[in-house]
Amino acid sequence: MSRVSVRRVARVLEQRLLTLVAALTAVVLLVLFYYPVATVFADAVLVDGRLTVEPIATILTSEFYLVDIIWFTAKQAFYSTLASLALGLPAAWLFSRFEFRGRETLRSLTILPFVMPSIMVAIGFVATFGRNGTLNRALSAVGLPPVELLFTLEAIIVAHAFYNAPLVARVVTAAWESVDARTVETARSLGANPRRAFRDVVLPQLLPSIGVGATLTFIFTFASFPIVLALGGFQLATIEVFVYSRVRDLAYAEAASLAVIETVISITLTAVYLRYEASQRSAGGAANPLPRRSVVPSDWTPKSTLRTVGIAGYALVVGLVFVVPIASMILASVTGGDGGFTLANYAFLVERQATGASFQVKPLPAILNSLAFAAGTLVVAVPMGVVMAVLTTRRYRGRGLIDVLSMAPFAVSGIVVGLGLLRGLVFGVDVLGTRIRVTGALAIVAAHAVGAYPFVTRNVAPLFARLDGRLVESARSLGATRTRALVDIELPLVWTGVVAGAAFAVAISIGEFDSTIILAEGAGSYTMPIAVERFLGRRLGPATAMGCLLLLVTSASFLVVDRFGGRWGEL
Amino acid sequence: MRLELDAVSKRYGSATALDSVSLSVDDGEFFTLVGPSGCGKTTTLRCIAGFESPTEGTVRFDGESMAGVAPESRGVGVVFQNYALFPHLSVGENVAYGLRFTDPPGGGTRDERVAELLDLVDLAGFEDRDPDSLSGGQQQRVALARALAPGPDLLLLDEPMSALDARLRDRLRRQVKRIQSELGVTTVYVTHDQSEALAVSDRVAVLNRGRVEQVGRPRELYHRPRTRFVAEFLGENNVLDGVVESRPETGGIRVGVGDAVFTLAEGRRVLGQGGSASGDRAETDGRDGGRPARPETGDSLTFCVRPEQLRVGAETNRVRGTVVDTEFQGATTRVRLDWGGTELVVAVEDGGEESAAGFEDGTTLDIGFAPASAHIVD
Amino acid sequence: MRRRSFLKAAGAGGVSALLAGCTGTGGEQTTTEASGDTTETTTATTTEGTTAGGESPTLTVGTYGSFVDAPSSSPGPWLKETFESEFDATLEWQTPDSGVNYYIERALQGVESGADLYVGLDAQMLVRIDQKLDEALFSPAEGLSRADEVNEQLNFDPQGRAVPYDTGYISLVYNETYGDGDFVAPETFDGLLESEYAGALLAQNPTSSATGQAFLLHTIDAKGEDGYLDYWASLKENDVRVLGDWEDSYNAYSNGEAPMVVSYSTDQVFAAESGEDMAKHQIRFLNDEGYANPEGMAHFADASNPDLAAEFMDFMLRPEVQAEIAVRNVQFPATTTAELPEDFAQYAQEPPEAVTFSYDRLQNNLSDWTDAWAREFARK
Known about the structure:
The complex is a heterotrimer of chains A (571), B (378) and C (380).
Chain A: H1 2-45, E1 46-47, E2 50-51, H2 54-60, H3 63-97, E3 98-99, H4 103-109, H5 112-115, H6 118-129, H7 134-141, H8 153-177, H9 181-189, H10 194-222, H11 226-231, H12 239-248, H13 252-279, E4 293-294, H14 302-333, H15 344-355, H16 363-393, H17 399-411, H18 414-426, E5 429-431, E6 434-438, H19 441-466, H20 469-477, H21 482-493, H22 495-511, H23 514-519, H24 528-534, H25 541-570
Helix pairs in contact in A: 1-13, 1-16, 1-18, 1-19, 3-8, 3-10, 6-14, 8-10, 9-10, 10-13, 12-13, 13-17, 14-25, 15-25, 16-19, 16-22, 16-24, 19-22, 20-21, 22-25, 24-25
Chain B: E1 3-12, E2 15-25, E3 30-34, H1 41-49, E4 56-61, E5 64-65, E6 76-79, H2 91-96, H3 110-120, H4 136-148, E7 154-158, H5 166-183, E8 186-191, H6 194-200, E9 203-208, E10 211-216, H7 218-223, H8 228-233, E11 238-246, E12 253-257, E13 260-264, H9 281-288, E14 300-305, E15 311-312, E16 319-328, E17 332-339, E18 342-349, E19 364-368, E20 375-377
Parallel strand pairs in B: 3-8, 3-9, 6-7, 7-8
Antiparallel strand pairs in B: 1-2, 1-4, 4-5, 9-10, 11-12, 11-14, 12-13, 14-20, 15-19, 16-17, 16-19, 17-18
Chain C: H1 9-22, E1 39-42, E2 58-63, H2 65-68, H3 75-86, E3 90-94, H4 100-108, E4 117-121, H5 123-132, E5 138-139, E6 163-174, E7 201-204, H6 210-223, H7 228-237, E8 241-243, H8 246-254, E9 260-264, H9 267-273, E10 282-284, E11 289-300, H10 306-316, H11 319-329, E12 332-333, H12 342-347, E13 353-355, H13 359-362, H14 366-377
Parallel strand pairs in C: 2-3, 2-4, 7-8, 7-9, 11-13
Antiparallel strand pairs in C: 4-11, 5-11, 6-9, 6-10, 6-11, 6-12
Helix pairs in contact in C: 1-3, 6-7, 7-14
């Protein structure tokens, strides 16, 4: 009897589970994002408790802000997006159409730039593209004049491509791998040559993913801040640089106004993209992916030779932009003040671990915290993202608005979110005489999940949209609740997207800095990026050593996520 | 199980998909919804299954309202046009899927139930096959087996044959009908193919623009269509518009169409008789209430005559037309005539190899029909 | 405002080891929520247990991260250990990421400060605090027995709230081996505009970096309120590089991107510690001046242990503590009574003349100056 009632309760719960998760998502977003952000944005429209447009109007009528800051920010974001596409799309082509050793591993590692603290990238880039960097030494070795890349717009753009080309590559690879070979074969049988078949059949199926990669790249580089100052300089200041400056100077009205304008631009772009994505309904699944070929052709025709040369050239560029900077970082971690080899930086980490005071950052707890938060984020963000994707592919009134609102965590300045978290959560809110505060490990996980779940949604939603709705309806008519249908039928069919989203979620969590340090309750809940920042000193050694640990731990996690995730999907 | 739809409407924004549809389906009945695409038949089915909730009105299973009851709790089996087999599950797992949520009816094990169902659809031994490796007809049978496995009270078939070729369709249709009557499961079948509807159904509802045009047994609908739409949609028909000229004492009605005057038998259909009486009484009564029982002189009137009721050389209601084209269809030949700008179709029984010689294009032909074979519609 | 300090790694390790031994019980966080619960309510006070009930009181001290947690050495651990060994009290460090802004923000939101004391104030911060807050965040330090030992010239708070505990000088650090190996930094601000120094100077964003801000103030002092923007326009023309923070620019400097960087005049102390080539760490005081940036401490107006806070401030001013702070924070002592170790004095250079803006001069001007600079320099 009781067993029956337990089953009934479980079933009722199961029937409500999606609604429940959606409601929880809304609550988490409200508490950890919308409310905190609102406390800051209010400063843009409220002066002495009065509603006003004055702060925003002041900026919109300032030629300096409009032209020198906002327009310039958009311009560099646009160029950065182009560069990220140029660098990322060939990688997607290689990953999806070729077979070579280490392809899977390499693909897993493409996420690494996502977690790299900007100072690490700056160290790597200075060592690679600087006056005495690897590039210039290589150029002079072959008798070419040196390139002055640092402290220019170009340096910022390359660094942005370093961060975002892997994003483009990952998203587009997933789409390319799910192009049904039969569609290409059909086009070929109808008389299309390979190029034509690509343009007419493959490209339209890739465009939504290219669109998402480009949109996200633009939004991220539009809000770029530390890397701009580290590799470009203040003369290339972006909106976010000024948001930070104004916040630091406690000039909240101006900071909030700038951030509001920045957000509106990003949100608008997001909305435009989402509209476009919704209009795309590519058919078919990945039953028959396109065949892969070897990087080294079996016979050397002029065409295949050209292709191989192209791939080799691309590999060289990738080596310069990705491999050399990361290698430089690793090298920096074992280079002493006198330029010789040393393990002192790692010895420092060991010693700090052994003898550090409790209010100091220790490497091992930082690693464990990062992993624990990442695991927590995975557990929270994946269901959130999947449920939002389910909502996104459903038709209902106001869907467009929900879509955009759910993507907003991408579009709002991290500095604003940080300040909002401080005001709204750390200081607490008075509710009936008691101060409600939200801090600690769970708050950190929730904040990470807020930043991470849109990645899950964006990876999963397009795949959901491709699924035949009747599959779910069949399952439900057979007795499956909506949740069961999702778990039994839909998730296995969109599993690649879930794994891709999960990898991003982990990366976001591991790389997150701003919210973590604000919500952390002392050194006990600090993470690897915070340790890197704390270990920065006059010589960057200890920080680079910690940074290398960060890379190592992250690489290992991604291999696990991708491998384990991939295998789980096959079960 | 007895299914009732009580004034069900479904609107999407300002578009009305269903406009006060009322139906009732008896236990064990094979009931078909037929109509052109966009008529609302699939929406009706989705409201029954619970995939959509009606904007107004009620769906009842055995008298119990289904409002707020989730699809998974309705005990309904659904088969879709595109089969919707779960591509990542084997044939056996597909059929067994519904048994995850309920015990196999009949008390056997799950595997036994799967084998039983696959046997029923002539796919014994296909358990481990991949759905992708099956032909369209096989996939459709798997879908049927899957829908039937949990022992549903109601089986909903949404255009299940339309993706198959004609021969396969015929065979599968018979198989579905056989299985349905063996199991006695109440079935609602959606199709746009009127011949399919007439072939398998106990009763048929014709839908047009979200409304029920007529409900009845196949023969009744065929011979006594109540509206012009039904007359034209079910099978071929010659529909003529005219004006009542007189009502002679001898009975019947004289109707002028163009220059000709036809004599029709009195009345067109008898209410409260045959199949139309059972499920759709309320609706039929409601519709008939406002119409004059007898057309008076001067009233305009529409009537129809089936092609097979038009006879070459018939004495009554005789007109002369010109042959436009002929179409040999085996047992009959369809002859299309031009009669003063109106097209008439005549079905002529085939009289052997040389018989079509008289119907060459351009020749004139006298045809007529018996007063009782014409049927007045709205 | 974060300052990175370095000293002999071994020494720091030793101190930390001692520290770990006596503070192994955990519970160091000053925000006292039990971790695990997402939402919880806490009562108004976060510093618990004053002398009531026989428990030793807790002194909560806010400061910037590297004061307690720099990779090589920082005064924090030593101060905690020494203070606790002498006073029957627990010292808890609080290191919010946004430094003193965190406490200003708390006050703005009407939340109690949650700490007794802040260590690491400078004149610019006081100006910001007084501009933003109507009510006092800090109270004047009264009754300190060692107040008169502080170098009179370093007192930067006319209201007597902040008591200096160390000071640093911002100068240029340059690399003699750069280029052909005979690089010499210019001696004056005007010299920086010479074409031979095109692209030769790395500075920091004054809106986010202490050294950057000090350097900007130094140019304002040298060129005047009316002349500094023109001067900076010329600097920009001469390709000065203004990077985000001190780490960015020092990294670029170390990699030979430019021969000069704005940094601290104690740079050679670090260089000596890690055995670097002194030729690469030459100090230049432009116009024979260094911009002095004294750091002070003050106790919060709502401190729950004001007496203990005063005792701590007196403790900080002791000669031996002053010497330790100076060495561990790689700064100069603020008192006249402190005695520095010889090797430290050898490498830590002081300018012939120290310049600094008084609180009164900065008040009502600081943000305008910085703002105008930012708008000038960020013009594309």
